[in-house]
Write the structure tokens for this entry.
Amino acid sequence: MSAGAAEFDAFPRRGGVLHAERVALEQIAAEVGTPTYVYSAGALRERYRALDAAFSGRATICYALKANMNLAVVRTLVALGAGADVTSGGELFRALRAGADPSRIVYSGVGKTDAEIDAALDAGIRAFNVESRAELRRIDARAGARSRRAPIAFRVNPDVDPETHPYISTGLRTSKFGIPIDEAVDAYAEAKTLQNVRVVGVDCHIGSQLTRVEPFSDALARVRALVSELRGAGHAIELIDVGGGLGVQYTNETPPSPEAYARAVLAAVGDLDAELVVEPGRWITANAGVLLARVLYEKDNEAKRFVVVDAAMNDLIRPALYDSEMRIEPVGSATGAPRQVDVVGPVCESSDFLARDRALAPLAPGALLAVRSAGAYGFAMSSNYNARRRAAEVLVEGDRFAVVRERETLEDLVRGESIPREITG
């Protein structure tokens, strides 16, 4: 947010009870059950508008669906003017279903299939972010088969350390993403020889959850030099996609403000007479969501005390996969001296935890907990491991809420499966 501006309080505490905007989370849990993801429409709008204002309208904001692909979430942002960054045919389908303008959709990802390329061509997307020369040839072939010219931008890898978790670092030489920036001139020269692709831009995304602007500035300085060289070689670079990756505060992080981020981007490439595309995902949705879980019981062994809840790693895998620390707090009032506990779920894995060594007051069975900053990479990465039904999702606006994804049923768990008697007996 801008200096001195008060950020929208999506989850205030009123009368000792945590709310989503003006709806008590206890009410949502009572009516919808748990585990449930709860998103604030007000927070989604506020974050989008803050980023748009920081760029003074000089950038196309393509929301990265991989962070949270719920149709109601995507529609809330599309209604404000957001485009979409998609990484699969399924995400493209969701973006279009939510009303995204195809001319404001960019398609990223290292393994686009023929069917996915065809669907994007038919939709008329803004650009393919091409990850390799092999993919370039594949897109050229598919476009030729459909009598189209595919708009493309190579994703260049500037070999800049984003100083984040290695699993979400995408701009290093060892990453599977993009092409090395020192090979880009040759790659663009090859693209110029192909009949069914049209070079429109350059793409660069170095990673996620960045908490300093310097990696952005370093990467974009290299992109700037590349754009100059490409234009000198006769390529019409009309679009520069700077990716996403701006970090959020989960606990004690101090990420840059959107204004500081925008200043760094505009200082690096803002004067190059090209459409700027930014791809925020986590930054918009993470702190707009919580995961509600209900306490089953507390458990002691000789070395540890555990709070066992009904949400598990299949619902929220970030703590297990990235060792992420996400704030957890009681929804209602909690009394008693805090104790060090692990908050764990029912899944049959030692890695099934939502928090470790966390100070929490004693919690009775049935108490509600809220896992903060769960609006990004929460439900989107959930699974049916241990044959667990995936959670419900709820969107709140003011004093109203709606279930925007129903909790899966047991029948949903076996939908599409069959038992061939001639084989199984």
Notes: The longest helix spans residues 214-232. DSSP finds 13 helices and 21 strands in the chain. Confidence is low (pLDDT under 50) at residues 164-172. Residues 30-36+286-413 form a domain with the Lyase, Ornithine Decarboxylase; Chain A, domain 1 fold (CATH 2.40.37.10).
